[in-house]
Amino acid sequence: MSQTVDRALSILPLLAEGPADLGQVADRLGVHKSTALRLLRTLHEHGLVYRQSDQRYRLGARLFALAQEAMENLDVREIAHPHLVRLNESCGHTVHLAVYEENEVLYIDKVESRYPVRMYSRIGKPVAITVAAVAKLLLADLPEHERRAVAEKLDYPSYTARSTPNATAFLRELEKVREQGWATDLGGHEESINCVAAPIRGADGRVVAAMSVSAPNVVVTADELLTLLPLVRRTADAISGEYSGRTPVKGTV
């Protein structure tokens, strides 16, 4: 299996040099044409290579899309992190950064609260997509038909009495979030945890990530946490400005 994977991956640098036919690929790998063809077909099925009308192969669009997505996610985390740290230093609460990937919303950065009560969220872990504030922002930015398709496929666990009960309610919430430009989770996932979130936008205005501040009731009430919303939104705007190449907003915190 490892040899097969190694051979398949060896095809990509070859095609990066330019289109190649089956014989050239087989010669480079040192394998029979039938073996090279099986590898190319697998890569083609995943969109990583493309067979041209002249029967030569080149790198596929899916590969570039994956590379672009990875670069954007890496960049947004790198750009956002200093802002998240400053926000955490200002308010003391847990700060998260999340993105939407492969039908999941994932945390890609976290700055821990300075208070003894900590959240169990982890970088790389999917969030509770039907209730999390960051998830609402990321899904609300999808075109309407995509929002509806996603909402209708989701399960709606009753984490608490405040959890989103069904697709209809979720779509209403997403529309509200889309209009107001921010989101909350006030006890929807855990009764004792509240969260406020704001979107990070790229140069085209689309939401590329979402950031949030979360805190337990024993540290701060929901109403008190909501007073931080202007600060959270200014931080998100500052990250958006830097990420999209606009002049960063000064005086974030």
TrEMBL record:
SMART domains hit by this protein: HTH_ICLR (SM00346)
Domain HTH iclR-type residue range list: 2-61
Residue ranges occupied by any IclR-ED domain in the UniProt entry: 62-245
Keywords: DNA-binding, Transcription, Transcription regulation
InterPro entries in alphabetical order: GAF-like_dom_sf (IPR029016), HTH_MetabolicPath_Reg (IPR050707), Tscrpt_reg_IclR_C (IPR014757), Tscrpt_reg_IclR_N (IPR005471), WH-like_DNA-bd_sf (IPR036388), WH_DNA-bd_sf (IPR036390)
Pfam families: HTH_IclR, IclR_C
Protein name in UniProt: IclR family transcriptional regulator
